[in-house]
Amino acid sequence: MNKENEQLPLFDFDEANLKKVEQHQPTPLNDSNYGKYIVYVDESGDHSLQSIDQSYPIFVLAFCVFHKRHYSEAIVPALEKFKFNFFGHDQIVLHENEIRRRKGVFNIFKNREHHQQFTNQLTEVIEYSNFILISTTIDKRELKPNADDNAYHIALGLCMESLHDFLSEKQQQEKTTHIVVECRGNKEDRDLELEFRRVCDGQNKFNKSLPFEIIFSDKKVMSSGLQLADLVARPIGLSVLRPDQQNRAFEVLKEKFYCMDGRNKLGENFEGVGMRIYPAPKSEKPR
User: Taking the CB of residue 259, how many other CB atoms lie within 10 A of it?
Assistant: First the structure.
C-alpha cells in the first residue's frame, strides 16, 4: 500500500450528508439567547498609521462567519485529518506566515511536489469549508497619520456593521453572537475591547446596540476557526495591493464573501459589501 492510500480521507461527508449539515436547523432551546453563527477574526499587516511599510502599506481584518453545526461537524474534522496526514499528529497551529516561509514545523517538505500537495490539500479544505467572509482593508497611504487612529479599530467597526447586516438577513440580529479574536498583548487587548464595546453600545451606522460578545483567545489555543481566519487575511490584502497578480487563494475566497444578492450570486457584487476598502475607492458604488 502506498503512502497516498494510507492517508485519512479529508472529506468523508458525501453530498447527501453535506446537504443535511447545511439544511438541518436544530431546534433551539426556548430560553437560548445564542445565535447560530460564530465569528473568528484575524488580521494581516501592521495596524499603526504612524509607520507605513511600502512593500505592504495596508492592514486587513478578516471575519470568518461559521454556522456552528457545519463548523463542528464538517470543518473541524477535515482540518484535523489534514494535520494527521502531513504531520502524523494534530498538535500543529497553521500560520500563513510560517507556511509561506517554510519556517519551523513547516520545513518538512521533501521536494517541490510534496510542498504542492500540502498547498493543494490545504486550499481544498478552505474551498470545502462553508463560511461567510467579511473583510475590511485599510489603505494606510490614503490616511493622514493621527496618533489617535488605529487601523484595527477602524476595520473592526466596519466589519461589525457588515456582520450585523448579514445576521439581519438570517434573522439572527437579536441573538448573542460571539466574536473570537487572538490575544495580542495586554494594552492592545484592553484598547480593542474598549473600541468593541463602543461600537456595540451604539456608535455605529445603525445608532443601535449590537448583541455581540468578544472572546480573547490565547495564541496557543488550536482553534480551527482562528487558523482558517489566519489563512485568508493576506490573500485578501494582496488582491487589493496587486490586483493584476495571480492569486489562487483569493479566487477560492471570492465565492465566500458576503454579497448583495445572497448565496444565489456567489462571487459577485461583494465589493463594498462583504469586502470593504477604507477609504472607499471612488469607483465603488455605495450600498
Answer: 24
d(CA 60, CA 232): 10
Rounded to whole angstroms, the Cα distance separating 278 from 272 reads 10
Q: Write down the pTM of the prediction.
A: 0.88
DSSP conformational letter for 29: P
The three cell numbers locating residue 271: 465589493
> Are the C-beta atoms of residues 181 and 225 closer than 8 Å to each other?
no
Cα–Cα distance between 87 and 90 in angstroms, integer?
7
Q: What angle do CA 75, 170, 228 make, to 5 degrees?
A: 25
CB 78 within 8 A of CB 129: yes
- Write out the three cell numbers for 79: 482540518
Distance of CA 186 to the CA centre of its chain: 23
Measured distance CA(227)–CA(216) in Å, rounded: 14
Q: Which amino acid is at 47?
A: H
Please give the Cα distance from 136 to 139 (Å, whole number). Answer: 10
Band the pLDDT of 3: cuts 50, 70, 90: very low
pLDDT of residue 147 exceeding 70: no
The 10s digit of each residue's pLDDT in 38-77 is: 999 999 999 988 888 999 999 999 999 999 999 998 899 9
For residue 181, the SS3 value is: strand
At 58, list the grid cell.
495596508
CB atoms within 10 A of CB 48: 15
Describe the chain by its helix, strand, coil percentages, rounded to 5: 45, 15, 40
d(CA 237, CA 235): 5
C-alpha–C-alpha distance, residues 253 and 281, integer Å: 21
Find, among 159, 184, 126, 149, the residue nearest to 48 by Cα. Answer: 149
Q: Which amino acid is at 63?
A: F
